[in-house]
Design a protein that fits this description.
623 residues, alpha+beta, Butyryl-Coa Dehydrogenase, subunit A, domain 1, five-stranded mixed beta barrel, two-stranded antiparallel ribbon, binds flavin-adenine dinucleotide
């Protein structure tokens, strides 16, 4: 038996049988990669996750981070695995070899990261934030800045952070108050307070490089006036080593529901008027620079959701096979009958299949986003790159919000599967749930993701990306309908598509007139509907591949269409059982989720505006 974190067979299925990851290797950037390399890398990631990261997961939660006399310490259990993660070269695997990376496609790295996230997400926050910050310097920094900061960050010897949030500027980043004043030598004095800064301070790295959003004195209010600065914890000396302290102090660390091993800090910049930063890129382009990196960062958060969802599901499945409780339903009246493993109870099986369908559908969806990001960089011609970029832009808020919301549902259902034991810290599922919730909130709350989808991504370039996406889904429905075993389900996908595309068109019409409030009001339910459509699409695509492979496997075994013979074979043949599982998940999802989409679209179509029209005080009497 393997580890209870990720279904490695399904990973291979999505990468090789569904996406065709090898197509990426025709691009010059990736031409050294082979399918065998991908298998080997994922195998290494699994080993690292299971042997190094997972053992530190619970200790990291129990030890938490500490803040004493202004000094933040990460959980002691994290130090050694973090060091090994960097030493093994995982810290910047997608970057080019000349900066210490392996030039790995994001799609492949994401499959590896699913293991890491499932094993110990709080620890993965440290390298995750560092990558994000280093990537900004890589893309927008001067050569000097790249040498001074980035190389140490990619090596993992220095950490990095993203400093956007302030007490009065959360979702509304444009309201920030942190200020920058130019010094004679061209550097900048930074003053302000940032809150909730992940990995803002800790003792696993020799220096921490903060990417700070601030407004240059005199610049306009709102997001247009924001610039971004590189602010190290220790100023870097001429020898490239950390030198004097840079007037960045930690005010406190947050005590949180989950990800307790990740230090979430209040950072004070320039309390003594001596915090020096360097401008990154041009003045007033801070938001543009940040937005440029959002696709990968938001996908990372979606991958966090997938990691937790996958681990929670795999644990629930293993537990359901072992836990013996209650007699089978057909033996209920027979006191002499033995109790059975709970996996035999209908309700438990239904819940497990629900979880499986979402985990596998979200895996396929998130990997496809990484695939689109890869192609947006390496596709042969500019129009192709632009097409992939538009797909990535559209999918990003959906993957971030949908993966994280469903992950919380899946973790909750995993706890249900364990019964009372699931609520207790003896088993990891309660920690998965606590750790998963934050993904709905940071990197832009899921409510904000939905607004981004509806207000920016759908209408972008006359709705070209969403129209193209719907066309592809329609083509899949038509193709899958040719498989007799999936005809009904393809029809359900087609109906769901019609309803969702109708609603999407309607959003465009409303946006032009007095109905504008409706797409804004129902942005989040819309995102959920689109997420379900996409997951159903991916699952049915997979099921069609599975059906074709099953025909071959049954044919080769000589069982033809005999149902009993097929079932007997599935009991002993892992491949057949796997493909049957793909078909079962897709059919279950089609009937139980996709089938309901037209009704959900219709509800929004009724344009009920009561949530915005009613008085605040009617929500509940004011105190
Ligand atoms: C553990 C943790 C780690 C974090 N790490 C970082 C980090 O590394 N760097 C960083 O900069 N920040 C970080 N954050 C901050 C995080 O990104 C913010 O908490 C988040 O953006 C929301 O801001 P807020 O908390 O001020 O909520 P608010 O903006 O006050 O939002 C409260 C609620 O109102 C809703 N809302 C707000 N505006 C609108 C609107 N226009 N329309 C509809 N609904 C709206 C939101 O969706 C939310 O439900 C972290 C937070 C936590 C808890």
């Amino acid at each position: 038996m393997g580890s209870m974190l990720v279904n490695r067979r399904d990973q291979q299925f999505v990468l090789f049988e569904q996406l065709g990851v090898e197509k990426l290797f025709t691009a010059e950037k990736f031409h050294d990669y082979t399918a065998e390399d991908v298998r080997m890398l994922i195998g290494e990631a699994e080993k690292f996750a299971v042997n190094e990261l997972e053992p530190a997961y619970k200790p990291g939660d129990e030890q938490g981070c500490t803040f004493t006399d202004g000094i933040v310490k990460a959980p002691p259990a994290f130090h050694e695995p973090y060091r090994k993660l960097c030493a093994a070269g995982w810290n910047c695997a997608t970057k080019d070899p000349d900066v210490g990376g392996q030039g790995m496609p994001l799609t492949v790295f994401n499959a590896c990261a699913e293991w890491f996230n499932a094993a110990n997400f709080p620890l993965m926050m440290y390298p995750g934030l560092t990558w994000g910050a280093a990537n900004l310097i890589d893309k927008y920094g001067s050569e000097e800045q790249r040498q001074r900061y980035m190389m140490n960050m990619y090596a993992g010897t220095w950490g990095g952070t993203m400093c956007l949030t302030e007490p009065g500027a959360g979702s509304d980043v444009g309201a920030l108050k942190t200020r920058a004043v130019r010094r004679d030598d061209g550097t900048w004095l930074i003053t302000g307070t940032k809150i909730f800064i992940s990995c803002g301070d800790h003792d696993m790295c020799g220096n921490i490089v903060h990417m700070v959003l601030a407004r240059i004195e005199g610049d306009p209010p709102g997001t247009d006036g924001i610039s971004i600065f590189i602010v190290p914890k220790y100023r870097v000396g001429a020898d490239g080593q950390p030198g004097e302290v840079n007037d960045v102090s930690t005010g406190n660390i947050e005590h949180k529901m989950g990800i307790k091993g990740s230090a979430t800090c209040v950072l004070n910049f320039g309390e003594n008027d001596a915090c020096i930063g360097e401008l990154l890129g041009e003045a007033r382009s801070g938001m543009r620079i940040m937005f440029n990196m959002m696709n990968e960062a938001r996908l990372e958060v979606g991958m966090q959701g997938l990691g937790h969802a996958s681990a929670a599901f795999e644990h629930a499945l293993a537990y359901a096979r072992e836990r013996v409780q209650s007699r089978a339903v057909w033996d209920f009246a027979n006191p002499a009958a033995s109790p059975v493993p709970i996996i035999e109870h209908a309700d438990v099986r239904r819940v497990l299949l629900w979880m499986k369908a979402y985990v596998e559908g979200i895996r396929s969806l998130n990997y496809s986003l990484a695939y689109a990001i890869d192609f947006s960089e390496v596709a042969g011609d500019a129009a192709e790159r632009e097409r992939w970029h538009a797909i990535a832009e559209l999918l990003t808020p959906v993957c971030k919000a949908f993966s994280s919301d469903r992950a919380v549902d899946i973790c909750s259902l995993a706890i249900d599967t364990y019964g009372g034991y699931g609520y207790c810290s003896e088993y990891p599922v309660e920690q998965y749930m606590r750790d998963a919730k934050i993904a709905c909130l940071y990197e832009g709350t899921n409510g904000i993701q939905a607004l981004d989808l509806v207000a920016r991504k759908l209408p972008s370039k006359g709705g070209r990306a969403v129209t193209a996406l719907f066309k592809e889904i329609g083509a899949t429905a038509a193709k899958v309908a040719k498989e007799p075993a999936l005809k009904r389900d393809a029809g359900i996908l087609g109906n769901a598509l019609q309803a969702v595309s109708g609603l999407t068109r309607q959003f465009g019409v409303w946006a032009e007139g007095a109905g504008l409030v409706v797409p804004i009001l129902y942005a989040r339910p819309y995102l959920d509907i689109l997420g379900d459509l996409l997951v159903g699409w991916h699952l049915l695509q997979g099921a069609a591949i599975a059906v074709r492979n099953l025909e071959k496997l049954y044919g080769a075994a000589g069982v033809g269409s005999d149902a009993a013979g097929r079932r007997a074979l599935a009991r002993t043949d892992n491949e057949i059982a796997f493909y049957e599982g793909k078909v079962a998940a897709a059919k279950f999802f089609a009937v139980n989720i996709l089938h309901g989409l037209p009704a959900r679209c219709e509800s929004i179509g009724m344009m009920e505006k009561v949530p915005v029209e009613m008085l605040d005080r009617s929500l509940g009497m004011e105190g």
